[in-house]
Amino acid sequence: MPSLPLERRRRLSKSKLLSWLQCPKRLWLEIHRPQVAQPDEEAKRRFAVGHNVDEVARSLQPRGILIASVENPDEAVRQTSERIEAAGSRVLFQPAFQHRGVLIRADILTKRGAGYELREVKSSASVKPQHYQDAAIQSWVLRGAKLKLDSVRIQHINTAFVYPGGGDYGKLFAAKAVDDEIRSLAKEVGKWADSARTTLAGKEPKIKTGKHCKDPYPCPCYSYCSGKEPQTKYPLSILPRAGKAVLKLIEEGYRDVREIPPGRLTGAQERVRRITKSGRVELLPGAKKAVRALPYPRYYFDFETVQFAVPIWAGTRPYQQIPFQWSCHIERAPGKLEHQGLLDTSGYPPMQAVAESLLRALGDNGPILAHHDSFEKQRIEELANLVPKRARELRKLIVRFIDTQGLARDYYYHPAMKGSWGLKNVLPTIAPELDYEGLEHVQDGGEASAAYLEIIAPETPSERKRELRAALERYCERDTFALVRMMRFFATGK
Length: 494
What we know:
Elements: H1 6-9, E1 12-13, H2 14-22, H3 24-32, H4 41-59, E2 65-66, H5 73-85, E3 91-93, E4 96-99, E5 102-105, E6 108-112, E7 115-121, H6 129-144, E8 149-157, E9 173-177, H7 179-186, H8 189-201, H9 222-227, H10 244-251, H11 267-278, E10 282-283, H12 286-292, E11 298-306, E12 322-333, E13 336-343, H13 351-362, E14 368-370, H14 373-386, H15 391-398, E15 401-403, H16 404-411, E16 412-413, H17 423-430, H18 445-456, H19 462-492
Parallel strand pairs: 1-5, 2-3, 7-8, 11-14, 14-15
Antiparallel strand pairs: 3-6, 4-5, 6-7, 8-9, 10-16, 11-12, 12-13
């Protein structure tokens, strides 16, 4: 935090060591130039989800004692020490420990016999590679602080869990013992800490941007670092499915797709290279034939969904994508459009209303067009399971879907799409007046989900709810009108 004294900011913690492991330059910047770190909205949403998951994990052990968050880490360590020594303090939440200048706050520490079990709570659906590093750091500090640590477990979300309702989250989590996996890593933590201090004591590291900037998490300093590097309009990173061939080209010094000579790429990558090099749009004749072969009525369709790490509606699973909104432009004859849609922001389970309303709107025949239609088809299959009385009718919709992204990939490419056939990449090249940047509050699916969550929150003012509802309606309708406009372009070239 910029407001903290430098000496306090330079104090090592688990999160700082994890930053150093991702990239030493990231740690250096976060400490010495914190103003360049720009966490995105997705990072903030991940933090909120993790906080919610932590609270549920604690609720499952009601006798646990929380070491309250305090500004002074030494005070948190002192409070922890008092609780460790006190009789009856068998479960501690967020206890603080330090060893050789490295501070940690453990999630759940449980006394079992003469020793302790550490549980690190994660909001992910499985144990990730970075979680082993996380657990290794904590194990090293706890043992260095002379705590008898018998077991380390990663507690993560069990996606097979179906919420029965009534606040019963007893089976929400799965846990994996990771003692074997972290044993060798824990031996390295002291070296990591020494190297991190060496990094902080020196000048800003000279490290180029690369894959590490997004692995395991998007780096908040990426804009700063990339802004200091030579800029190119068409970097090799835009090539679809960039793999070893692209990495080899980068190692050879190529930076711009237009520099790559013919014969080095194949398939979609070569197509992107060729068209980018020429600077000319490619719309193949087959597009017109494919679109004109589609019968009427045509239904241009899109869902907006929300997912919860901790399900709030009975019968749903963690991270299940639940539709709360749909939009459909219906073209019953060439050029004759009408719009229908549903937006359920009541906060009650929306599945029944969504299923009933889309069955009424989509009728019994005619192609249903969606961009990356596997997403919509999967949501409808899940709706069929959640609304079993309408399952047969819902499943009949699935076979009617046409993937407009597949059509675009087969027949169209514009250099400005930069290797992507996503709707938000295609649309500005066809109808720039429909660009999503002109929409207020909601410009993508992540923002749509966040808007929904804000609307159903009891503390959100009524005026704000109305504002966000209007934004959601504009956004989802834009998605389906964009499909209409794209198909018209494919059929006519204008």
